[in-house]
């Protein structure tokens, strides 16, 4: 008697990448897919990210902080439960600069990683791999 045991693969994590550079977004998404790291949705702006977060839950965010307060507002909406994702969803922040006060605020908001621009795509893919196994 031949009995086969089915192995059910764990569902891939769904991440949201919020980044203004289309080239950078596409590169990260394509390489992450090729390496089978995660399914990544793209948002070109914080406004588009808020719409995506209102539509469906995500297992992690890769958030460009931006120049103003919009990136921080997206993070606070997530943390306060105003999205479809759990408040404790893992977040990595990308920023051009980060002073001590901003870094402290991001840590208070539970940000797992702060990446200072410029950084290599490889570095972000390492973060994608980490967020893909993290649990909120």
Automatic annotation (TrEMBL):
PROSITE patterns: RESPONSE_REGULATORY
InterPro entries for this protein: CheY-like_superfamily (IPR011006), Sig_transdc_resp-reg_receiver (IPR001789)
Domain of life according to the entry: Bacteria
Record flagged with keyword Phosphoprotein: yes
Keywords of the record: Phosphoprotein
Tagged with keyword Nucleotide-binding: no
Pfam families: Response_reg
One GO term (biological process): phosphorelay signal transduction system
Positions of post-translational 4-aspartylphosphate modification: 64
Domain Response regulatory span(s) in chain numbering: 14-132
Name the record gives this protein: Response regulatory domain-containing protein
Annotated source species: Caldimonas caldifontis
Biological classification of the source: Bacteria, Pseudomonadati, Pseudomonadota, Betaproteobacteria, Burkholderiales
